[in-house]
Queue: 4 jobs
Job 1
Amino acid sequence: MSNLRSSEEEKYDMSGARLALTLCVTKAREGSEEDLDALEYMFQQLRFESTMKRDPTAQQFQEELEKFQQAIDSREDPISCAFVVLMAHGREGLLKGEDGEMVKLDNLFEALNNKNCQALRAKPKVYIIQACRGEQKDPGETVGGDEILMVTKDSPQTIPTYTDALHVYSTVEGYIAYRHDQKGSCFIQTLVDVFTKGKGHILELLTE
């Protein structure tokens, strides 16, 4: 895995353990198994220790993140990074568990922050959220020319509660996320393809 940091002078030490957790609701989400297969392949290629759980309830989303945090903090070997994939139906800021109940994304993000997970302080934490964020459908727009994404990062003198975290959503606020009932999610399938074939730091891969 490459670095979240864009500066060549500041790079994360990726020599330690790389840990991944995938929580996926497959109920009424055709194509989810293809996404899980693709993610498993990606984590193998990127040398991650991967844990996957299918059809968690809303409470189990929270419990699995907390168990993941406890397992990380209890390890004696160095940890390099954590990669969390959350896939379910959803609304803005919420995921729907297999039981139909909702869990707040902010509560899930708290599990690995600097207050609750000391082993991941100043370590990259990547969240991939494959879920709808509303009911609007994006028909797309035709544009010309190249789009350039500029990313900058200041260096704070103190460490706040949330640092070194990257939240990547499959769609923008208020819109649905597209998923093929046989080929899987457009976002997850493209993510795996780029991450397993491309080279460069993570921001470059995500921009691609």
Note: The domain at 18-207 is CATH 3.40.50.1460 (Rossmann fold).
Job 2
Amino acid sequence: MYEEELSAFHETGDTGEIWFGFESVERVVNWLEKSPLSTLTSDIIDLGCGNAAMLLELYKRGFRNLVGVDYCDAAITMAKALAEKESAVIKFEQCDLLNDTASTCSSLSYSTYHMCIDKGTYDAISLMPNNAQLQRTCYIKTVHRILKENGLLVITSCNWTEKELVHQFNNGFALLEKIPTPTFNFGGQTGNRETVLVFKKMDVKMTGSMSR
């Protein structure tokens, strides 16, 4: 997908699609901007940054210590090109959240971030055809490792409910806040198109298992 978007950017200047729409970006950025738990100097990493829409909006709002990682080389190339176009100083690196170690990806090498942002990456990992439960465990361990003490994970999901996410992240994280999202009614039931939660890293030893 990003190969096509990169080609379109070079040909027409099209910056590509934004997962869940720009309103989902604004929802998270507005929370970060207003929350007493974040500052303009907070170290923030976007896990699965794609075309860097989230990071570029954060940069426009004054945040400066920003890092974006993505599994896809073309996504990183696209993100770098868009950041350069906006004169935004953001670090980007191709990384595999499920396998990288300190020796292969400096952005995931040690506990260095106040906040991790995820908009759809955990969803994508959850849909992996081979042992998705194990991959989710690897993801959660990586996030726990790279966060500073009391660091935060701000996660946006359209696949999992609040209850499911709290259950899955109970090994190493505690729910801090739920960011409101628009509701809809269907069949007499009220629901949300997406769930946005803020988890706080707990000082515990991560285990190898994870709840379903």
Note: The CA atoms of residues 100 and 108 lie 7 Å apart.
Job 3
Amino acid sequence: MIGFEIFRDLQREATEWRRHLHQNPELDYRLPDTAQFVAEKLASFGVDHIETGIAETGIVAIVQGKGGDGPTVALRADMDALPIVEASGKPWASKKPGRMHACGHDGHTAMLLGAAKHLARTRNFKGSVALIFQPAEEIELPSGGLKMVQGGIMDRFCISQVFGMHNRPGMEIGTFAICHGSIMASQDDFDIIVKGKGGHAASPSGTIDPVVIAAQIILGLQTLISRKTDPRDSLVISVTKLKAADAYNVIPDNVEIAGTVRALSSELRDFAEREVFASAQGIARGFGADIEFIYRRSVPATFNHAKETNFAITAARNLVGAASVDDKVRMSMGAEDFAYMLEARPGAMILLGNGPSPSLHNPAYDFDDEALAYGIGFWISLVETVLGSERIRT
């Protein structure tokens, strides 16, 4: 078993890096200072190659092992923050009004930097490690993960496997969680415009009221899950926007409905796109109205591949012991654009405990620096597990 205590010195450095990044959050692809900070640290560690400007501000760095030829395994961290006003009250709180690291990407970046420093110093593996620092995880269409894949990083850097890690509030510090198959859901969004016939609110009989129709559609969408899908399947359809008239006494011509769909399989995504349209159109036409329907597919489900999931489980157990690794965690209906990388190459996403912190995307959230040593240690353990460091120690 690898004791995480050997990473305590790196944790102290990583804490400084993490808090610097936390104080200086940047959004989406606009990460010039963050990218420069990461690139300068990587250069100081003596990694073999650094390529910047991928998907605007993304970075890929290569560390070659001393054990000879072998595959290239990629480790990924996201770097962007969120447009949220911070309320953590920490001394290292954001200095940028209206921006904060509310999802722990500052911690993810610091952990991968810590792993990069250790790997560049020891090189105790065969093949190479590609360190992916990704922008724009928090936005859709196109997100940073998609743009980096479309930019050809998997082929350009000969990546054979790819791994990601995300912190999870509510899990104890020093624990990990993972599962085979889908660990996070896909994300799709839809817009429905109900087209009726407006008029005076005092004379509804002379209208085809799109407000009433919209209400029926919203309720009808919920029965798609309760009556048309297997209760053992995981599907979420949530209506999150509703826009009608701006006056008390007006029945509008149109009403706008919007929402999101989360699913754990491509079959459920297909079902949702088909049935949301059919249900909304059928209800509207039953009242003499019609609809305009837009369905946008965004992030696919985050799917952990079997062999790579087993590598991650072994690496985590080697670090903290089997009792601190949940290898059958329940999947989340949240979405993660690391899914695009897992579509391009086999790999896995693992969850790291962040203790009893506020939830992700909460203004009071903060990444717990005590988790840094465990995250750094996991990356090192994973590289040694996949690339066979034990065979070159003698």
Note: Residues 186-297 form a domain with the Alpha-Beta Plaits fold (CATH 3.30.70.360).
Job 4
Amino acid sequence: MMDKILSVLQGEADLWLRIFMIDTLRYLLGVGVVLIVLFVFFRKFSLQRRIQKRRASMADVRREILFSLLTTAVYALVGLFTLRVKQSGHSLIYMDVADYGWFYTLLSLPLVLIAHDAYFYWVHRAMHHKSLFKAFHRLHHLSRTPTSWAAYSFAPGEAVLMAVFMPIIVVLLPLHVSIIFAFLTVMIVRNAMGHSGVEFHPAWWVDTPLNTLTTPTHHDLHHQKFNGNYGLYFTWWDRWMGTEFPDYKDAFKLAASGHSATAPARSFQTGLAVEEAKP
């Protein structure tokens, strides 16, 4: 009996390790591609488009990578649970496009992104409440001047909250396995772009309907000021809820014009203290 239990546990551990390696590779490739494009192929352009004058230290980068790897370990655990949900027949994951047709299959990608954006906004905003911030979200905000490596730099509790979206959505929305892969790819690439510290969008972006999409400046201001700009892919929740910073467009245009913004006026520790104390 004990041998059987140990064998099952070993099998689960081996599967978790494979999922962890895949999630870690996705993180490294997603961040790596963004950094190579910005700071190898378009280095001069990117240096002119820095959002902050302040630069992240090597200690910041090491912390971001370390906790991002911890996050992929948590993601792998939740991914293992999601796989078991599928195998039990309780999910709506499907393998054959013919089950729902090409139209729905392609439509399901923007649907899951819209759902994830809503989930992210409200969970993210909740983590800024004084009763949750220190335990769940403070670590991510140690990246005062974030780099793309901060994409998954979460405390374990935040990593769990971010990861459980997947087992929730697969029991609510039919998703082809390729759409799940595409969603996870978009998520890490968008995260890496949003934390890059480089405003690569054209200066006219925020004066057009494209302003429904977030930009690196949008999220960078969140790291500078803490209590606003909570959205991930879209700006509409921040606008509907009145949480978009009023100086967002000015800060965007400053960075997009090639004039780096100044570092945040108040100290980093003061900002964290304010965030932890707010109701």
Note: The radius of gyration is 20 Å.
